[in-house]
Amino acid sequence: MRLYSLSVLYKGDPKVHLLKAAYDVSTFNFFQRSSVQEFMTFTSQLIAERSALGSRASVKEQEYLCHVYVRNDGLAGVVIADNEYPQRVCFTLLDKVLDEFSRQVSKMDWPSGSPATISYSALDGYLSKYQVQTLRP
């Protein structure tokens, strides 16, 4: 059971854009890592774009399961995991991350934000914490 990506996006008009993301591509071949990361970024944006405000969904893309949660305020989160990772845990993680993100990052920064301008550093910690939790019996 693995988590590969955790992204926070903003679903505005007319497009969805990435605010912050964390990736774990350590299980991939060194030469594949950047293209795998690009695929995950693109897929996260596409799934958030196609999801309605206030919705949750799980979408199968190749050998991955992508879990998306788009809040009514336009803030969206996407987790990309393998097929074995529990769906309920993914949505719990998304709830927690989006709540914390909305408390720490001003809503006024969402429409114009980017990974370079948004200061929110908790995603890597969540990705590794939820990675390790699933490995314990």
TrEMBL record:
Membrane topology label: Lipid-anchor
Keyword annotations from UniProtKB, A to Z:
Lipoprotein, Membrane, Methylation, Palmitate, Prenylation, Protein transport, Transport
GO annotation (BP), single = endoplasmic reticulum to Golgi vesicle-mediated transport
The cross-references to Gene3D superfamilies, in alphabetical order and at most eight, read:
Longin domain
- GO CC terms for this protein? Golgi apparatus
Q: Where in the cell is it found?
A: Endomembrane system
Query: Could you tell me which Pfam families the record lists for this protein?
Result: Longin
Boundaries of each Longin domain copy? Answer: 8-127
Tell me, in one coarse class, where this protein mainly resides: membrane
Q: What InterPro entries does this protein map onto?
A: Longin-like_dom_sf (IPR011012), Longin_dom (IPR010908)
Q: What PROSITE patterns does this protein's entry cite?
A: LONGIN
- Protein's name according to its UniProt entry: YKT6B protein
Q: Which organism is it from?
A: Tyrannus savana
Native organism taxonomy:
Eukaryota, Metazoa, Chordata, Craniata, Vertebrata
Q: Which gene encodes it?
A: Ykt6b
